[in-house]
Design goal:
homodimer, about 240 residues, alpha+beta, globular, Split_barrel_FMN-bd (chains A, B), Pyridox_Oxase-rel (chains A, B)
Chain lengths: ~240, ~240
């Protein structure tokens, strides 16, 4: 367990308790899992609600800049208005990597990579930071695409709320490899192993209203059919 | 919006506020999204914690039986011990279906299907329900597999905590189709359309310790390379 200089310092909030050998706190591991994904599940509680602290968890596209996570949406969104108040949130990113089939139900498992990151959400008010980060969001997924589009209009900036969270603590959990069975069960005539799962790109569907003569552009060449989304996002993050 | 007899009745907690035309409350839609997935993100708050209601969100395998969602894990798990106390939780399931590329950054979007389900977690103490549901979990993903394995041992039942949540309220949100751009932007020389994304099965990796002579079994025949996981789980749910 690396809890050195370049690691997030776990407290009781983020320390991996069960199967702690699966827990990692170093920035390299945490950032790699974040950079390979694009949908986070963000948990928050609406303060002072009469229903006794009902938590919500919402799927949201996110991106990372250093130790800051960003997400955005309509200024009319209840989630974003609530989070703008500066409340504690938990941002979780999960990659499902495989089904682990063991020789007993008990030892079936899942191969995965996940990160739980903790901090306080804040609303980004600075217009320059807002515009820079919204452009970064596009270029992070589609490097070079901003250059092919018109810029952000002032009323679009106004209609968009940008949230940021400095990562105060984060932990990664990873499971890889074959099943681990009870010793006597290895003698059973039961198939065991791993069935890999990955998020994969399909064949692009041009907008029916696409202007005649506009071809599949150079900046999307990595989005070829059959490619893994996590590998592609990782490649983009490294070249960014 | 179907809020008839066979629909969950939305309150302020679950009603889709933004882009409400994307919101659905009927059981058929909600159950179909749940049955096509296997990983949920579950939000909860550890009661009486000194850090002011910090929410947590944990990725967990789940399954459905009627209007009840189940998930399980080690009896030593902090998450499960906390949830056993009967606290409000939010269970969210998300399918990322595609990247929607518009002619402006503002109109970029994501095609997805998601469900947010609300209720109180409870610990299943009844041993018969526990055993039945744990077997259902295996058969839901791998129909017929239980018959090829040894049964659950009593100490395994004891070491496993099973949580259940009756769905009190649920809402589904769905986006499909091409981008919607501002009228003047359709004239731009910018590629627009949808890049589909799906979770796909890879080539199975047999356990290095697999007993000689054990072949890929009949009950896994649907897990063929290149198949979509959501389609396969849906097919299993329908035949179950």
């Amino acid at each position: 367990m690396d809890t050195g200089v370049n690691a997030y310092s776990p407290t009781d909030r983020s320390r991996v308790k069960r199967l702690h050998e699966r827990g990692k706190y170093d920035r390299e591991t945490v950032h790699a899992i974040l950079d390979a994904g694009m949908i986070a599940h963000i948990a928050y509680v609406i303060p002072d609600e009469s229903n006794g602290g009902q938590p919500y968890v919402t799927p949201t596209a996110y991106w990372r800049d250093g130790d800051t996570l960003y997400w955005h949406g309509s200024s009319a969104s209840r989630m974003l208005r609530t989070q703008s108040a500066g409340i504690p949130v938990c941002v979780t990113v999960t990659h499902l990597d495989g089904l682990v089939l063991a020789r007993s139900g008990f030892h079936h498992s899942i191969n995965y990579r996940s990160v739980m990151a903790f901090g306080q959400a804040r609303k980004v008010e600075d217009v320059a930071e807002k515009e820079r980060e919204l452009n970064r969001f596009i270029d992070r997924i589609y490097p070079g695409r901003n250059a092919t589009m018109r810029g952000i209009e002032p009323q679009e900036l106004k209609a968009t709320t940008l949230l940021a969270m400095e990562i105060e603590e984060a932990s990664a959990k990873i499971r890889t490899g074959p099943p681990k069975d009870d010793e006597p069960d290895y003698a059973l005539d039961c198939w065991a192993g791993v069935i890999p799962i990955a998020q994969v790109i399909g064949a692009a569907v041009p907008d029916p209203l696409l202007k005649a003569g506009v071809d599949w552009p150079e900046h999307l060449k990595l989005f070829s059919e059959g490619r893994r989304l996590d590998a592609l996002l990782t490649e983009h993050a490294e070249s960014y």
